[in-house]
């Protein structure tokens, strides 16, 4: 089939679900990933033919079901690094890159070897990016999902960094490995589940129907359940002057300030993301 005709088919099938520019973006991402054909090549060779277009049609069927393009490709990019993603892991967001950048910039305040833990690590994108960009850091990643941790370990290998991954539920100390009781950390970071059930109606189908709910949602009546547990953990396990970083629900900034203040954290800073939404918060232990 001619590539131009295939592109037209993509628009016929997908324009009802996505913007035309987004459909083109999907089309050329798939074409580049599987066939190493870039947009400029098609412009120069408008009659270009694909001998085997079966992968493209399988991808088209998945896109019609609004499956995320990252799951179809099996990978994405985060903080300039490649990451494998599956239905067991959240797709990393640009806002989370801002959280990583904040920590990387903050680490200059530590002159000694650092110890960092990422709680709810998922694909490992935060932990691995920090390990890659802070050479003097010993980095740990914790998650309740064995399936997510399998992908995280693959991502650490892919990016040639050493991260110590642990399977545990931060809400249940009986599941914690001994290392969590024995060590202190200079930085604790988490992007835990924070979307309230009442906010489901605001979400797009490609997220709501395909990304893991375990990593997304919390009950309306206790939306800070993970933040409370991690903050309590941090009061005991942070070193003096150690820092706690969170990605947060944009609607709960004031509640997060109150939580950290109540737990006697100092130098609390609520930070907006690129979309001008309250998205990150930092507090330091006395």
Notes on the structure:
This protein is α/β, with parallel strands linked by helices. Helices cover 41% and strands 21% of the residues. The chain folds into two domains: 63 residues; 198 residues, 3-Layer(aba) Sandwich (Rossmann fold). The protein contains twelve helices and eleven strands. The strands form three sheets. It has a seven-stranded mixed beta sheet with strand order 5-4-3-6-9-11-10, sandwiched between helices. The N and C termini lie far apart (66 Å).
Question: How would the blueprint of this fold be written?
Answer:
Layout (H helix, E strand, L loop, with lengths): L2 H12 L5 H16 L3 H6 L9 H11 L4 H5 L1 E4 L2 E4 L9 H13 L7 E6 L5 H9 L3 E7 L2 H13 L4 E5 L10 H5 L2 E6 L4 E2 L8 H4 L8 E2 L6 H13 E10 L5 H10 L3 E7 L5 E7 L2
Parallel strand pairs: 3-4, 3-6, 4-5, 6-9, 7-8
Antiparallel strand pairs: 1-2, 9-11, 10-11
Helix pairs in contact: 1-2, 1-4, 6-7
Main sheet record: 7 strands, mixed
Radius of gyration: 21 Å
Beta content: 15-25%
Q: Average pLDDT value?
A: 94
Q: From the coordinates shown, what is the CATH architecture of the largest domain?
A: 3-Layer(aba) Sandwich
Oligomer: single chain
Provide the domain count: 2
CATH class of the largest domain: Alpha Beta
Distance between the termini: 66 Å
Could you spell the SSE succession in H and E letters?
HHHHHEEHEHEHEHEEHEHEHEE
Query: Low-confidence runs (pLDDT<50, min 5 residues)?
Result: none
Q: What is the share of helical residues?
A: 40-55%
CATH superfamily of the largest domain: Vaccinia Virus protein VP39
Number of strands: 11
Could you say which structural class the secondary elements and strand pairing correspond to?
A: alpha/beta
